[in-house]
Amino acid sequence: MAETVTLSGTASPGLLASLDPLLREWLPRQRWFAGKGRPVTGFTLVAATELLPVDSRLGLYHLLVRAHQPLTIGAEPHPGDCYQLLIGVREALPPRLAPALIGHVEQGPLAGRTVYEALHDTRPAEVLLEAMRSQARIGGLRFEKEPGRQIRTGLVPRLVTAEQSNSSVVYGDTFILKLLRRVVPGVNPDLELPLALAREGCSRVPAPTAWLQAELSGEPYVLGVLQPYLQGASDGWELALRELAKGEDFGAEARALGRATAEVHTALARALPTVTLGHTQMQLLADGMIERLEAATQAVPALRPYAPALHSAFTALADLAAEGHLWTAQRIHGDLHLGQCLRSPAGQWWLIDFEGEPSKPLAERRMPQPVVRDIAGMLRSFDYAAHSAAAPAPEWADACRAAYCSGYAEVSGRDPRTDPVLLRACETDKAIYEAVYEARHRPDWLPVPMAAIERYAMTDLT
Predict the structure, then answer these.
(1) Whole-angstrom Cα distance, residue 16 to residue 18?
(2) CA–CA separation, 403 vs 426, rounded Å?
(3) CA-CA distance, 272 to 258, in Å (whole number)?
(4) CA-CA 20 to 30 A from 19: which of 213, 274, 319, 411?
(5) Which pLDDT belongs to residue 7?
């Protein structure tokens, strides 16, 4: 591997200036770009590391760039999101790399060259794996490996082309590297929690083999995680839809998934601290739900007729806490749904993607929460699957929800349905979040959460 030079925004202003006009056009088109709907007005170079020398046939830069955009009305001042980019540099692209084109550089140190998304290319992907295998230190980048884990050479990489909020590369059906695109400083739960679970002996989560991080201004940035590739595994969402389309019962799978969820929660409670939530903490939790409801009714007018009944779900939780009821909070998945689960051909379920909801601040994603938050997310996912079928099948969702809760109770010793006030509040909060998301991004899907909203509101009236 070539010797690498680490640059900074002040040390090499020409590099970013040469890429700026191309990135302004290319970056907003990427699935993982968070600032859609607002133009990019400029960039700040956070760090640049040359992984392959640009004076050779193939150059490779690892960049961390901060994208600046106009603030939305009422938004707090924000320095701009920081993105991880892997920029390949060639004289010209071969036809196989045409979909990866970013553009042709007209000025600066890369003038006359073609730059492209390097993860589409075999050699740059190999560079990343080799760096993790050798635990390299390259400029400000640190490639770490879990003790005792082996990474063999010769694994052929391929980019996962399915739409994702990050980017993934599979190496020879042995490993999968998840590269985070929008990065923030701090301990990232997508590495923290799987490491804790692996060290606790929990087999329900693929154990991290290696990872990529950077140290910038004294703050750690987790940039990527390498884990075993679960060959032949089925995505839980796709599997549920296939079974639903065939009219097959999904109850046994839902029960097994409930057991898997409980195993993960039990292991997390052993591995990391738990806390007790009393009146003050639960009042804050309920207040947060109420604030999200109020904001949602402004964004989605269809919610307004149901707002008073939905509000009562949250006040009921606060009232129960005021009576002295206590809850336990712990680290949880944070964004659990069928698409975050994989099933092996032999029938074992795994949970993946512990990043949490990327739109939430990292500190919030790392806070202990009642496990019912995860459970509510999965119950809502069954409802989504049932309503995305050609003929909505609410009875299918009801059966899956019951089986999932029963499976959870078999391992944890506690059925989530025995805490109906908290479960209803968390499901309502999740459905409100879904309504806002669908209204903004997928209006055709808005009837799915709205059907649940109406049901939750009517439940309050009976």
Answers:
(1) 5
(2) 19
(3) 21
(4) 213
(5) 37
Question: 165-215: per-residue pLDDT in tens?
Answer: 899 999 999 999 999 999 999 999 999 999 999 999 999 999 999 999 998
What tokens appear for 184 in the block? 């923030």
Sheet holding 210-216, edge to edge: 137-138, 141-145, 210-216, 219-228, 175-179, 167-171, 157-159
What b/e sequence results for 412-428 when a residue is b if at least 16 CB atoms lie within 10 Å of its CB, and e otherwise?
beebbeebebbbbbbbb
pLDDT for the residue 8: 34
Q: How far apart are CA 14 and CA 289, in angstroms?
A: 47
* Lookup: tokens for 349: 């379920």
Tell me how many degrees the CA angle 38-357-254 measures, rounded to the nearest 5.
135
The architecture (CATH level 2) of 234-461 comes to Alpha-Beta Complex (3.90)
For 244-386, list the strands marked E by DSSP: 275-277, 327-329, 341-343, 349-351
3-state class (DSSP) for residue 272: coil
pLDDT tens, position by position, 392-408: 888 999 999 999 999 99
Contact 30, 68 (CB under 8 A): no
Which tokens belong to 128?
């990343």
Where are the CATH 3.90.1200.10 domain residues in the chain? 234-461
Rounded-to-integer distance, Cα 44 and Cα 31, Å: 21
C-alpha distances in Å from residue 165, one per residue of 168, 169, 264, 356: 10, 14, 23, 12
Query: What CA–CA distance (Å, rounded) separates 127 from 131?
Result: 6
What pLDDT is attached to residue 388? 83
DSSP of 381-447: HHHHHHHHSSS--HHHHHHHHHHHHHHHHHHHS--GGG-HHHHHHHHHHHHHHHHHHHHHH-GGGTH
- The span from the first CA to the last CA of the chain, in angstroms, equals 68
d(CA 165, CA 152) in angstroms, rounded, equals 28
Measured distance CA(110)–CA(113) in Å, rounded: 6
Q: Which amino acid is at 323?
A: E
Close Cβ partners of 337 (under 8 Å, ≥ 6 residues apart):
237, 377, 378, 380, 381, 384
Given pLDDT bands bounded at 50, 70 and 90, which one contains residue 76? low
Task: Please state, in angstroms and rounded to a whole number, the distance separating the CA atoms of residues 209 and 133.
Answer: 10
